[in-house]
Automatic annotation (TrEMBL):
Residues 14-100 form the Methyltransferase type domain. GO terms for molecular function: S-adenosylmethionine-dependent methyltransferase activity. This is Methyltransferase type 11 domain-containing protein. It comes from Catenuloplanes atrovinosus. It comes from the Bacteria.
Amino acid sequence: MESVGLGAGGRWWEIGAGHGRTAQDMQEVVGPSGFVRATDKTLHPGAVVRVERHDIVTDPVPDDEPFDGVHARMVFAHIPAREEALLRAAGTVRRGGGIVVEEMGLYTGYVAYSAVDDAQRLHARYSGALREILDGFGNEATWARQIPRVLARAGYSDFHVEVHTETWPGATAGCELLVSVSDGLRPHLAAQGFGEQDVGRLHEMLRHPSTRLVANPLVCTTAIRTGD
């Protein structure tokens, strides 16, 4: 975020703040003379900073705009009116300010290795079922590629895109996140032909110490507002 102006005295809006850890890091950078407005549609217990409830689609934008910058991580892809929501957020930034939007890329994660039998095919089946479920919820898998086009409509330029992925060993936080997600989607997965036995085998694979899972890529787009 420093590349688009996060610094001492800055005024930033953190959208989709979750437990507030990123907002906390941002507050340390802007210091006592700066300000970070942290919001999320759903409030999470145990947040490390004050996070305010806010729906980027339906609620008015914060009245302390314009901001020096906005950061949003995995907020817009699942919103049917994603373009309008991003334009609302982008419109709160002053001219010369910056925006950072992070979204998941296409479903290209895969099992690099696992001693669990048929792990690669099992994960591929799960990924296919998950994509069908998320698409049914209104998610747009190619959204990350469209972000610069949308931001250009709000007067942004100087785009920079970085793609990041990493390898998660079995039973570590990344794999446990997939365990949690798949556990919460059991009925939806079953409707896609990925049943209880499949979920059990998936969890076994994700928690096996030999497993090495290459995560889906995270696409980070930054831009500067140079016009209206």
